[in-house]
Amino acid sequence: MGKVLLSFDTAGDFLSVGIARYTGEPLNAHPFDILSSESFPAPRRANIMLLSKIDEALAELDLDRGDIAAVVVGRGPGSFTGVRIGVATAKGIARGLGVPLYGVSTTDAIAQRIAASGHEGWAFIAADAMRKEIYPALAYIEAGAVSRVRRDYVGKPEAVLPDAIDEYRRSSAGGTLLVAGNGLLKHRDSITSAFETAGIDYEMADESLGMVDGAGLIAAYVAAANGRSPEPFVDTGRPGDVFPIYTRMSDAEEIERVKKIAAGDSVPAYEKASDRSGVGILVGGDSLDAPAGDRALDSAFPVALRSLVPSDIEAMVAIEEALEHPEWTRGLIEAEFELINRIWVGAFLQGELVGFAGFADLAGDVHVLDVVTAPTARRKGVARKLILTGMQRALEWRTNKITLEVRVSNDSAIKLYESLGFVQAGVRPSYYSDNHEDALIMWGEMVTDEIAQTWWSSVSRQERAESGARILALESSCDETAAAVVEENTVMSNVIASQIDFHARFGGVVPEIASRKHIEAVTGVIDEALAATSASAFSMPLSALDALAVTDSPGLVGALVVGLAFMKGLSFGCAKPLYGINHLEGHIYANILAHPEIETPFVALLVSGGHTSLIHSSEPGFYRTLGETLDDATGEAFDKVAKALGLSYPGGPIISALAETGNPRAIAFPRAMMKSGDYAFSLSGLKTAVITHIHKAQETGEELAANDIAASFQQAVIDVQVSKSVRAVQETGAKWFLLAGGVAANKALREGLAQAMERLDVKVSVPPFVYCTDNAAMIARAAAARVFHDAPLDFTADASARASLDFPKI
Predict the structure, then answer these.
(1) Which residues of 41-79 are buried (b: 16+ CB within 10 A; e: fewer)?
(2) Is 449 exposed, middle or buried (CB count within 10 Å of its CB: 0-12, 13-18, 19+)?
(3) Residue 132's CB: how many other CB atoms inside 10 A?
(4) Of 31, 41, 45, whose CA–CA distance to 3 is shortest?
(5) What integer pLDDT is reported at residue 279 of this predicted model?
(6) Residue 259: is its pLDDT beyond 60?
(7) Which bin fits 174, alpha (ψ -120 to 50), beta or left (φ > 0)?
(8) Among residues 409, 437, 407, 404, which one has the least CA distance to residue 422?
(9) What region does 166 belong to: left with phi over 0, alpha with psi -120 to 50, or beta?
(10) Backbone angles phi, psi at 553, to 5 degrees
(11) Exposure pattern of 690-706 as b/e (b: 16+ CB <10 Å)?
């Protein structure tokens, strides 16, 4: 079992990593010995450096990832991208290791570092928030204990300093105010001037005290767990429950809010919250341990399930000692936490341990060590949840056999085990030492032998090596958080958490909102993708995978960073190789997923909200971009025309539906670059012509024939794309033509290209609608073609907003 707590923070220009050993004391005492605590300059390099520094810190202590019992991450405030890198990586590590994750305020961690320096009294922390703003915090330190005046917030120094000064005057009995934080680098003059004008006695702290360190994060975790932080502390331990601290809404939401206020409209409550950017788009039960068939927690008794750590030992002992026949002493429980191949799972009600179960890997079989519930939690379904959760976790050991002993007189427990599929296998006479009662031996299968063979058989793995690996992939390049499991051309699951309804408020994708939504949804979609692969009560374990894949380019960089950071963390945690996939190649492989008989040479037309490209592939894995848009992408043009017509977002499906009743030749819109002699596209002029036509009609009071406008616009797009696609196929000698991307769902474009290619005797592939838009199945399929040929990503891999396909992939 894990023995150490890992902590890290990436909210600022410094990367901080800490490792502490559990002492076995409860969280209200002194549960940790700090083994290492370091900070490294890492401006805009957190995604490149973080995992390497964690790996180095463990190696220096002669530890490995299996020694990690829990993770603590700084969740800001700070650089939005930096905070999300840290939180996403932490979610991935915790999910991969199957350990609890906790998030703490970065400001709390700084305050704890100041306390550790020996400072007593008041401290003012000014962290740099960019935009000529600071994150201000006022804290009082007494005997090493930190108390902050209010939650994290943000503002320009001239706006927030008067409030801070008033709070200090109301709270302070005098003394010298210590001023610290990296915000002093830019705002020292305004900060010191404000304090001097107010007549406050202050001193400037050493620059290092304004940084986060690993020890400070751990101290902040202990303080938060004991209710000594103004920031709400989520104690479930589930990775999906940890979110960055946002002190403001995105710019788009802020502008919308100001307009609503000016118009006298009410502002939704969620838009006033500082913790979340809006309503989280989560898919299914986002739980660390819960199996697929038991995710819904009983609302009447909503326990949270997580792995236990040494600081839980005292609570475990208290529950055990309350039993009529206690079987585990403190010494035995403590010894268990020193052993490998052990799982201890706890059920918590409002932060209090109300039950636990232990499992061991003994000679290839799982053995249930103990199942205990507190008197207040009995007959509430807690024991069932604990057993199912432990079984799900134990499947990572690549075994499906499970055994246990139970007192022959314990009828209720026997009935529970039988309801879970256990059968009686024998009796151990006088097994229990307290009264020499016999033990009934029971055993069961967590999954069928057929499923076990599918998941872990070395023969099946060898067969897959010849045709395609089993891949868990994540796609987050724009506004869809998607996860899928694919084996060869079989899509075992394909889950998408869409943000479309949210972005529709703004008429298009807002990058900042998209990134926030990805970090909210990522753990949930991964869990759902693994759960959806299995017909049993249990999700596919990570140990059943061959590799992981993630979109690392191109796309919205903030969105890509979240996906890559999470999957790098997951790869670190579960020790599976990770492959980075170009989003454009993924769209091409959506066709191969649907039509595995596709052969090179082929030409692909990739049309989506962000891309319009003609691509030639002469042999597998080799691509050459023949031409691409010089301005607007096809999907982008559809959205803008729809907006000009007063239609909602996304515009593509609406324009397409409207065009079905319109005359495509009603308006002579331009066919830009149709006869340019190259393969470049330009849609800006066409878009402008359509918008100009609409405005002129509105100015003259002419009734708009929206269906004719839509049909004529769409036809102008199709004519150019069909013309250039035909010429590309003729000049390259391609035998296949592939249509890919979100706009590939456009029925008229499909039909126009199909008819043109049929005349050339060229085979056409168009993926099913579900694989046209962004999805993870196509990313997994692209990765499967490379797993046994390419090197996986290393810890230093980073995302790229722009990337070309014009280099070999295999």
Answers:
(1) ebeebbbbbbbebbeebbeeeebebebbbbbbbbbbbbb
(2) exposed
(3) 12
(4) 31
(5) 27
(6) yes
(7) left
(8) 404
(9) alpha
(10) -175, 165
(11) beebbeeeeeeeeeeeb
Placement of tokens 């999805």 in the chain: 775
> Residue 97, exposed/middle/buried by CB under 10 A (0-12, 13-18, 19+)?
buried
Rounded distance, CA 712 to CA 11, Å?
Answer: 50
Handedness of CA 187, 192, 197, 198 (dihedral sign): positive
| pLDDT tens, residue by residue, 377-434 | 999 999 999 999 999 999 999 999 999 999 999 999 999 999 999 999 999 999 998 8
Sign of the Cα pseudo-torsion (690, 692, 698, 703, in order): negative
* Averaged pLDDT, 226-247: 94
Q: Give me the numbers of helices (H) and strands (E) for the chain, helices first please.
A: 24, 27
Average pLDDT value for residue range 175-179: 91
For residue 497, report the phi and psi dihedrals to the nearest 5 degrees. Answer: -105, 105
- Rounded CA-CA distance 608/587 in Å is 10
Q: Is the peptide bond before 601 cis (omega within 30 degrees of 0)?
A: yes
**Are 358 and 369 spatial neighbours (Cβ–Cβ below 8 Å)?**
yes
How many CA atoms are closer than 13 Å to the CA of 532, on its beta-carbon side? 20
Q: 358 is written with which tokens?
A: 């232990």
d(CA 202, CA 87): 35
Distance between CA 194 and CA 157 in Å, rounded? 9
Nearby residues of 515 by Cβ (< 8 Å), 6 or more positions away: 80, 81, 84, 556, 558, 559, 561, 562
Separation of alpha carbons 803 and 613, rounded Å: 13
Q: What's phi and psi for 444, nearest 5 deg?
A: -160, 175
The pLDDT confidence band at residue 273, using thresholds 50, 70 and 90, is: very low
Q: How confident is the model at residue 466 (pLDDT cuts 50, 70, 90)?
A: low
Pair of tokens at residue 540: 């596919």
Contact 452, 400 (CB under 8 A): yes
Locus of tokens 């463990």: 58
For residue 317, the one-letter residue type is: V
Give the span between the Cα atoms of 35 and 47, in whole angstroms: 24
Question: How many other CB atoms are found less than 10 A from the CB of residue 123?
Answer: 26
The sheet carrying 736-740 orders its strands as 624-628, 612-617, 602-607, 736-740, 763-765
pTM > 0.85? yes
Among 167, 170, 174, residue whose Cα is nearest residue 138: 167
**Nearest alpha-carbon partner for 541 in 573, 578, 518:** 573
* CA gap 502, 520 in Å, rounded: 14
CA pair distance 307, 197, nearest whole angstrom? 53
User: How many angstroms separate the CA atoms of 551 and 566, rounded?
Assistant: 11
Query: Can you read off the two tokens belonging to residue 496?
Result: 């998408």
